[in-house]
Design goal:
This protein has about 350 residues and is mainly alpha-helical. Helix content is about 70%, strand content about 0%. The protein starts with 9 loop residues before the first helix and ends in a 23-residue tail after the last helix.
Length: about 350
């Protein structure tokens, strides 16, 4: 059994690949949101509504066709939808009060929250190598923050304290949402989860839009330049939400959130090759650090094989995870925030 035996694990490789797929999706949603913001469209709940509506239609149709009773109580999905919708709203709202750098750094709070919740409620076991992988990933993101501060992002925002508190609150809600989804998808049906989250998420978003964003939507001129980013955002989020349960089942919440840290790195590559912009050298060092952290976190090393037979059986039941608990991410976003 070699030290890098994990490379032969199809689930591990699949988790890493899918993690980067959702990370790219989060990057695309960030660019779509920036395009909408440049056109004066500030309606984050409305953007989420279309995603939830697509989830409800697509997965709801499959659920109705199967003609099965719900495996989980409906009010669990209501609570999950409330948490998910408000997590998205809080983090997007924070951009009005604090800097991009602060949001990026504080959004990492999702990872320790996820680790604590999975340890407390899902009884996930963590080894020293897992914590080392998490620490290296976060260190990589901190390098990105330093790079932003070193270059241009020096603005603190009109009310940094309020903005930072909103990000922390949103990160906590993301953690609750991710861990709840992980529990449901490992104990129940992925199709049922997406259908119910989409249905109740769309319902809650519609109510929130009528209260907070109705006037904003009335003032929008729906030209092609506004419609395309809006639809593109919704489609990317639909794919993100559809892929997240698969990652949760394979790797768990923590691995998902760690994967979403690379979304900023993909944004850098887009800036380099699509917009021909120059970036600070720290970005490349940060990308290498995050990648190394992901490999260490997802690795199954020889030392880990010294566990007792009972622990090995427990880990197999947890989809082969030794100390793995997902995050969002996303979303991504999760991660990371879904609107980063």
């Amino acid at each position: 059994m070699g030290g890098w035996e994990w490379l032969r694990s199809k689930k591990t490789v699949a988790g890493l690949v899918l993690g980067q797929f959702v990370s790219i999706l989060i990057t695309s949603t960030g660019f779509s949101s920036s395009q909408l913001s440049q056109r004066g469209i500030n309606a984050p709940t409305s953007q989420s509504f279309l995603n939830y509506f697509l989830l409800a239609i697509f997965y709801g149709s499959i659920l109705v066709h199967r003609r099965r009773w719900l495996q989980k109580k409906w009010f669990y999905y209501v609570m999950l939808a409330i948490v998910d919708v408000e997590a998205n709203y809080l983090v997007v709202k924070a951009y009005q009060y604090t800097s991009f750098t602060s949001v990026m750094l504080l959004d990492c709070c999702t990872i320790p929250f996820v680790i604590f919740l999975t340890w407390m409620f899902l009884k996930t076991k963590y080894g020293y190598r897992k914590f080392a992988g998490v620490a290296i990933c976060i260190a990589g993101l901190v390098l990105v923050v330093f790079s932003d501060v070193h270059s241009s992002d020096r603005a603190g925002g009109p009310n940094p304290v309020k903005g930072d508190l909103l990000v922390i609150a949103g990160s906590m809600l993301y953690a609750v949402s991710n861990v709840t989804e992980e529990f449901i998808v490992k104990e129940g049906s992925r199709v049922e989860l997406m259908a119910m989250l989409g249905f109740f998420g769309a319902l809650i978003s519609a109510c929130q839009i009528s209260i907070l964003e109705r006037n904003e939507l009335k003032s929008v001129r729906w030209t092609t330049g506004a419609v395309l980013p809006f639809v593109g955002f919704a489609l990317a989020m639909f794919l993100f939400y559809s892929t997240v349960p698969v990652i949760l089942k394979i790797c768990g919440s923590a691995m998902l959130n760690l994967s979403l840290l690379t979304s900023d790195m993909w944004a850098v590559l887009i800036r380099i090759f699509a917009y021909h912009q120059k970036v600070d050298w720290m970005y490349f060092l940060a990308f290498a650090a995050v990648a190394a952290g992901l490999f260490i976190y997802s690795g199954v090393f020889k030392e880990d094989k010294t566990q007792s037979t009972s622990n090995e059986q427990y880990d197999k039941e947890r989809n082969g995870e030794v100390g793995i608990d997902n995050s969002v991410v996303r979303s991504h976003t999760a991660t990371g925030s879904f609107y980063m």
